[in-house]
Amino acid sequence: MLYFQCDYLEGAHEQVLRRLVETNREKLVGYGEDVYCQSAREKIRAACGAPQADVFFLVGGTQTNAVVIDSMLAPYEGVISARTGHINMHEAGAIEFTGHKVLSVDHCEGKIDARTLENTLEAFWQDESHEHMVFPGMVYISFPTEYGTLYTLRELTALAETCRRYHIPLYADGARLGYGLVSPRCDVTLEDIARLCDVFYIGGTKVGALCGEAVVFPRGDAPRYFLTRVKRHGAMLAKGRLAGVQFDALFTDGLYWRISRHAMDMALRMREGLEKLGYPLFLDSPTNQQFVVLENGQMERLREKVGFSVWEKADARHTVVRFATSWATEPEDVDALLALLAEEKR
Amino acid sequence: MLYFQCDYLEGAHEQVLRRLVETNREKLVGYGEDVYCQSAREKIRAACGAPQADVFFLVGGTQTNAVVIDSMLAPYEGVISARTGHINMHEAGAIEFTGHKVLSVDHCEGKIDARTLENTLEAFWQDESHEHMVFPGMVYISFPTEYGTLYTLRELTALAETCRRYHIPLYADGARLGYGLVSPRCDVTLEDIARLCDVFYIGGTKVGALCGEAVVFPRGDAPRYFLTRVKRHGAMLAKGRLAGVQFDALFTDGLYWRISRHAMDMALRMREGLEKLGYPLFLDSPTNQQFVVLENGQMERLREKVGFSVWEKADARHTVVRFATSWATEPEDVDALLALLAEEKR
Amino acid sequence: MLYFQCDYLEGAHEQVLRRLVETNREKLVGYGEDVYCQSAREKIRAACGAPQADVFFLVGGTQTNAVVIDSMLAPYEGVISARTGHINMHEAGAIEFTGHKVLSVDHCEGKIDARTLENTLEAFWQDESHEHMVFPGMVYISFPTEYGTLYTLRELTALAETCRRYHIPLYADGARLGYGLVSPRCDVTLEDIARLCDVFYIGGTKVGALCGEAVVFPRGDAPRYFLTRVKRHGAMLAKGRLAGVQFDALFTDGLYWRISRHAMDMALRMREGLEKLGYPLFLDSPTNQQFVVLENGQMERLREKVGFSVWEKADARHTVVRFATSWATEPEDVDALLALLAEEKR
Amino acid sequence: MLYFQCDYLEGAHEQVLRRLVETNREKLVGYGEDVYCQSAREKIRAACGAPQADVFFLVGGTQTNAVVIDSMLAPYEGVISARTGHINMHEAGAIEFTGHKVLSVDHCEGKIDARTLENTLEAFWQDESHEHMVFPGMVYISFPTEYGTLYTLRELTALAETCRRYHIPLYADGARLGYGLVSPRCDVTLEDIARLCDVFYIGGTKVGALCGEAVVFPRGDAPRYFLTRVKRHGAMLAKGRLAGVQFDALFTDGLYWRISRHAMDMALRMREGLEKLGYPLFLDSPTNQQFVVLENGQMERLREKVGFSVWEKADARHTVVRFATSWATEPEDVDALLALLAEEKR
C-alpha cells in the first residue's frame, strides 16, 4: 500500500525525536516557560527577522486558529476568509464555537484577492445598517492555501496594505508554511510573512513534529494575558517542553527548511511524472499537495493500492483527488505511484 | 416628509393598544403564564389548525431566531440559510454568538430551492471528512423573504420533504408572515405553514404590535425546558402579558389578517402606480416591500422628502431602493409618494 | 385573592400608558434613535447629574445584566457577585452563556463588604497560578439587593474605592432602584450611584413600565459599538420608542420617584402591621420587599387567599416568605393581608 | 535544586518514549483511528472491565474536562463541583467558556459528600422558581481530589446512587487516577470507577506520558458524533498515534500501575520522614501530593533549594505548601528534601 492521503502520516523527524529522548529526564517547568521553549522562541524570532516577536506554542491547527482569531477579534467582529478556507469548511465550527462569524468571500484557487477584500470592507462601511451586521475584524488567509497555491509577494503586500488601511489584522495560517516558503515558485520569505502579517503560525504537525504549532506575533503585541486565553480554550500544554524541544530542533541548523525542501522535491518528482503520463492537473499547485483529475474507474482501481484524498467531483465521470508529500515521503514511493498510474494509461 | 423606510414606524394597532389599556390594572402572573397568553395560545393554535401546538411569546425577531435555532440544533450542527437570509446578514452574528454556524447556500430572489438544499445535504453526507465539518442540522427560510418573495405551496412542500428525508427541521421566520399570507399571489395558508414547518414564528412587531413574536411548534414538541433556554438567552419577558394581550387582540376577529390585507392593498396601489410611471421594479415582489430601481439623482432628490431604504447598487448610475407599507400606511401617503415620483418623470 | 408575590403584577402606570397611546401614530425611527428616547436620555442624564452619560434602553433585567457584563469584561475575566446575587442564582446561567464565570463571594444580607472584596482581589493577584484562573474583572451589586437591603453611602463608597484601586468597574443592578432610593433609611442618591458606579441600570419593569431598563454609563464611556453588541445578544428593541416613551414619562415631573414612594409607603404600612401582630421579620428590609417567618401551617392556610413568594426554609417548621409591594399596591390590599394575618394569631 | 512542585516535570516514562521511537516511521491514519489507538482502547477496556466502553484520547486535563462536560450537559444545565474543584478554580473559566455554569458546593478535604449532593439536588427541584435557575445536570469529582484525598468505595457508591436517582451522570477527573488507585489506603478499583461513574478519564500527562488523557464512557454511550464535538473544541489531535502509542505502552504489562506505585512509594517515604521530623501535615493525604504546614521563614529558606507549590495561607505566620512525587521521582531526591527539612529543625 502507498500512502499519499495527507502530510501527517508519520511521527516526528528523527532529529526532532532524538532531542525529545535526550531531554526527557530533565526537570522542566510547565506551560511553556522552560528553557527549550525559550530557546525555540529565540530561534524563531531570528528566523523571522522579528527580534521583539511574541511566540507561543499550541498543539494543533484548528486549536490555533480558534485561539488566535477569538483573541484578536472584538465580540462584534467576524473574520474574513476565502469560502474554501480551512476555518470555513473543515474545522467543525470551531470559530463559531467561540462566538464569531466567518465572513466568507470569493476566492481564486483558494486565495483572496486584495480587490475583493477592499470591496467587501468598503461595502460594509458604506452600508446604512452596518451596525446590525458582523463587523469585518480580521483577515484569515492560509499560506499555502487549501489548494496548495501561494500568494505572491505582490499579492500579499496588497492584502496587508488593505488590512492596514482598514485597521484590521492580517492572519496567516501556516499549517504547511515550510512547504510553501521553499517552493521554487515562491517569492515570499519568512521575513516577508513576519513583516506583512500581524500574526501567523508556523506549522509543526505537518512539517516534522509529532504535534505543535508556533504562533508568532511579529511585533510583540500579543493580546493581553494570552496564556489565560489559551487555558480558557483548553489549549494549554502542561508539558510545554513537548512543543519547545521540537521547535527548538526544527529551527536548529535549518532543519525545518531542509525537510520542507525534501517534500517539495518529492512533489515535483510526482508532478513531472503526472504530466509526462498526461494526467490533467486540477490546478497548478507549486507546493506539496498535487491535485489530479482521475476518471472514476481509475480512481476506484487505484484506491486499492494507494491512499489519497477525494477532493471534489470534476464532472459525472471524473473526480479530483489529492496526493500529498511530506518530509517523510520516500522517492521510491513516488515512483511506485507513478508506475501504478502508468499502468492505468496502458 | 413621507415614511416608507420600514414597516415598524408606528406603535401598535389601536385595537391592540386598547386591550393593553383595558387589562392594565389586572393582576397577572409573569413569564407567559397569564390568562391572556393562554387565550392567545388557543387562538393561534386554532388559526394554525394545530391544536396540540406549543406556543411561546418572545420580544423581537433576531432574539427569536437565536433562541429557536440554538434550542433546536445539536452543538455540532449549523443552520442552512440563503446567503441573503436575515440571520446571515443582518443579525450582527446573533446565531454565531450561540456557537452555531450559518451554512449559507445560494438563493433565488431570497428563496432556497429544494434542489439546492438536496445537493447541499447529499454533498455533506458523502464527504469523507464530514466529521470535521459543521453538520447541517436545520433549514431556515423566511416567509416572505428579505426580498418580499414567497414560496409557493409546491416549493415549500418540496423543502419540507427534503428536510424530512434528512431528518432535520424546517424553520420559517415569519417576521412579516401576515403580509405574505394575505398576498393575492400566495397559495400557502397558515395551516400549510404549520403542517410543513417544524417551527415558525408569527411576527407581531411588524404587523400591529408594539413588540412580540409568537413561536409555534405545531406538533407540540418544543425543546425541553424551553422557558429556561429563553431565560438563559436573556429573552424572558417578565410581564408576559405584554405579548399575550397583544397577540390575543391580533388573533381576535381576524385582526391580524385584516391589517395585513391593508398593508397589501397599499403595496398594490404603490406598485400599480410605479409601473404606470414606468419605474423598473428590481424584482417581482408580491408582498408589502417593493423594490424599485432609481437613477441616483432621482434617489438623492427623493431622499429629502421621503424615507426609504437603500437596498443595493444596481449599477454605477442606479440604485435599488425599498419602499415598505404596513398596517398603518395611509392611502394618501402612497399617493403623495407617487406624485413625487411622477414629478421626477416630467 | 390578594397578590403580593412580586412587584410586576400590573401593566404600566397610567401616565406611562397614556403617553404610549398619545404618541402611538407618530412615525418614529427604530432602534432607540427616536425623539422620545433622546428626550428620556436627557432627563435621565439630568436626574443622574451626569450630563455626558451614555444611556441605552433594554427590555428586561437578566438581558441587561448579560449585555452589560459581557460587554465590559475581557474574555478572560469574570464578574464578582454575592453568592445570593440575581446573576448567580436566578438568571438560568445567562452570564455563563456569554462565556463568563460568576465569581461568587460571601455576603451579608445580600450585600458585599468592601473588606471581603479587597481580600478576594488581593488573594487573586497574589496567587502564584493566577494566570490559570478567572480574572476578577468587574463587581456586580444590586441596589437594593435580593433581600431588599441597601448599601449605605459609606459602604458603597468603600466598594467603589476598592474597585478603582484594582481598576475594575462597579456595576449596580437597579431593577428596583426607585424602591431603594426613596427608602427613608437610604442615604444614597441617584447622583451618588452615578458618581460611584461605572455602569448601572434604572429598572422600569418593576417601577411603572410595561417593560424596559435604562442602562447608564455615567461617564459616557460605553463599550464601543454598544448597539451592535446589544443586537448580537438578541436584545435590540426594533420599536425603541416603546422604552423611550415610557422612560420619558417616568422621568417627567418626578413620576418615577412618586410611584416609588407609594410602594415604600405600602411596604412600611405592611411592616408596621406585621410587627404589631408579632410576626418575626427574617431581616430588616428597608425597601418594598418584606420577608416574614411563617409557621408552615400558617403559610399553607394563607396560600389559599394570598399570593406570596416562598423564600427559603427557616427551620423544619417555619418558612421565610416574601411579600412585595409596588407602585400599584392598594392600601386596602395591605390592610386585607394584615387582617388575614391577624386572624392567624387569634 | 530539588523539584517537587508538581508531577509533570519530566518527559515520558522511558518505555513509553521507546514505543514512540519504535513506531515513528509507521504510516498511520490520523484522528485516533490508527492501530495503536485501537490497541490502547482494547487494553483500557480490559483494565476497566468494560468491554463495550467508548474510549477517546485527548491532550490535556482542562481540555478533557471542557469537552466532556460540554458534551454531556443540556444547554440549560450546569455541573456540580466541589468549590475547590479544578474546574471551579484553576481552569481559567474553560467550562464557562462553553456556556455552562459550575455549580459549586461545599466540600470536605476536596470531596463532595453524598448528603450534600442530595440536599443540593432536592433543593433545586423543590424550588418554585427552578425554571429560572441553572439545572444541575452532572456531578464532577476528582479522584484523587485536589487535596490528594480519596473517596472510599462506600462514598463513591453513595454519590453514584444519588446521581442515578436524579438521572444525572457522575464524572470523575482522573488526572492522577493511577496515583489514587494504587494508594494502600484506596479500596476502590478501576473496575469500580468504571461501574460507578458514567464517564471518567485516565490521566496520562501526570502518569508517564508526554501528554494525553483517555476518556472512558464505560457503557459505550458517548455523546453522538463525539469526534466532531472534540474538533469543534479545537481538541482533535491530528496525529492521534501520539496518544495511542503512549496509552498502549502504559497499559501494557501493567506499566501504568507500576509507575504509579513508584510515585506512591516516594510519597510514603516523604510522609514518614515529615512525620518523624515533626512537620504538621495540613491534611491526611494518602496519595502522591503531600501538604505540609511550614513556618514562613522556613518556607522562604527552603525556596532557594527546593521547588514546591504554595497552597494557601495557614495563618499569619504559616503557609501550606505542597510537595508532589511522580513516576520519575528519585529516592535520593526525597532523602535530600528530608535532609534539608531536618536542618530546619536543628
From TrEMBL, chains A, B, C, D:
Gene3D superfamilies hit by this protein: Aspartate Aminotransferase, domain 1, Type I PLP-dependent aspartate aminotransferase-like (Major domain)
Record domain Aromatic amino acid beta-eliminating lyase/threonine aldolase: where: 31-294
Family note: Belongs to the threonine aldolase family.
Keyword Membrane: no
PANTHER family named among the record's database cross-references: L-THREONINE ALDOLASE-RELATED (PTHR48097), LOW SPECIFICITY L-THREONINE ALDOLASE (PTHR48097:SF5)
Protein name: Low specificity L-threonine aldolase
Record organism: Candidatus Avichristensenella intestinipullorum
Keywords carried by this UniProt record: Pyridoxal phosphate
Pfam family, one: Beta_elim_lyase
One of the protein's GO biological processes: amino acid metabolic process
Entry GO MF terms: lyase activity
Cofactor requirement: pyridoxal 5'-phosphate
